Every structure is written in structure tokens, then in C-alpha cells.
Amino acid sequence: MNQRKAVENGRRRPSGTDGSDFSYRMVVDSRYQKVAQGKSRLAALIFAQGVIQFITAIALYLNKLKGVTVDPLLIYSTAISFVSLLLGEIGRKRSRINFLRAYIFGSSAAALTSVACLLKSDQYLEIVRGFSSLEASNFEFLNLGAVFLGVAVAIFAVAVTISLVSNMAPPKKTS
């Protein structure tokens, strides 16, 4: 075996600590690398969802202050989304598959409910009509944009979380 003599500050380093043993080191399974990448992607998506949900909550609050009637289902959707974000963050940090599955379900349900509420409201039709003539206020566009951006981010987050859960599960034994 061909060993190099590493000298550091005039002292010889112990064999194997200078990197010469690289061929004997263990290789990390690609599944674990995928889990680490998935967790970092999910962290960014959860942060983005949190910001979008915060904007949506502010929009709901401002609508309430203006005296506009707010659909209770939209309020429940926002609350479900915040709870699912909390579950997703706990599941991501602690590698809890059940929390991540609850996050997938809650995030999907909240996104679908918010789109359904937006589509059934008269405000959506007014915004679409006002968009062509630019009569709608910036606040209405912000609300519409937050819902659609939230749905897009939720779709990516669900896809990343499903991939993460599949990589976190132990491999199937072949018999």
C-alpha cells in the first residue's frame, strides 16, 4: 500500500487521517442524499407557503375591516393551511412521515378549498371583468394573486413531500 507522509507543523500525522484512505470510506446511499435534498427544498416551499398564507390572512382581515362579508369556508381554509404548515415543519425537522402525510392532506385540502371559495364568489367575477378594463383595485388583484400563487406553491410542495416520504420509508424487502 502506497502511503503518503503527511507533515503538519513538523509532526507526522497518523496514517489514514490525511485522506489517503478515501477508497475505504463508506459511501452514503443515494436515498439519504435525496432525503437531505428533499428536506431543504421542502423548507423553502414551507417558508414560501407561510408568507403567502400570511398575505392571505392580512387580506382577509382587511376585508373584514372594510365590512366586506368573508366566506367562512375561506377562513377555515386559511386556518387549515396554517395548521398543515406547522405539521409539515415538524415532520420535516424530525423526519416524521405521519406528520408529512398530514401536511400533504391539509395543504391539498386548503388549496382546493380556497380555489373553490374564490370561484364561487362574486368578487372573482368582478375581478376578471375588471382585469380587462383595469377597474379592479390593487387589493383585489393581490388577493387573487395570493390564492393562485398559493395553489402553485402547494402543488410543488405536495410533489416534493410525496418524494420525500417515499425516500424516507425503509426499502422494501425482496423475498
How do the strands and helices of this protein lay out in sequence?
Elements: E1 7-8, E2 11-12, H1 30-66, H2 72-94, H3 97-120, H4 122-133, H5 138-168
Antiparallel strand pairs: 1-2
Helix pairs in contact: 1-2, 1-5, 2-3, 3-5
Q: Strand tally, please?
A: 2
Number of helices: 5
Strand order of the largest sheet: 1-2
User: Biggest sheet, open or closed, and with what strands and sense?
Assistant: 2 strands, antiparallel
Q: Radius of gyration over alpha carbons?
A: 25 Å
Residue windows where pLDDT falls under 50 for at least 5 positions: none
Strand content: under 5%
The rough form would be described as elongated
Q: Element order, helices and strands? A: EEHHHHH
Derived structural class: mainly alpha
- The share of residues in helices is over 70%
Distance between the ends: 40 Å
Q: Could you tell me the mean pLDDT?
A: 82
Can you tell me about this structure?
The chain has 175 residues and is mainly α. The protein is built from five helices and two strands. The chain has helices spanning 30-66, 72-94, 97-120, 122-133, 138-168, and strands at residues 7-8, 11-12. It has a two-stranded antiparallel sheet with strand order 1-2. A hairpin with a 2-residue loop joins β1 and β2 (11-12). α1 (30-66) packs antiparallel against α5 and α3 packs antiparallel against α5. The radius of gyration is 25 Å and the shape is elongated.
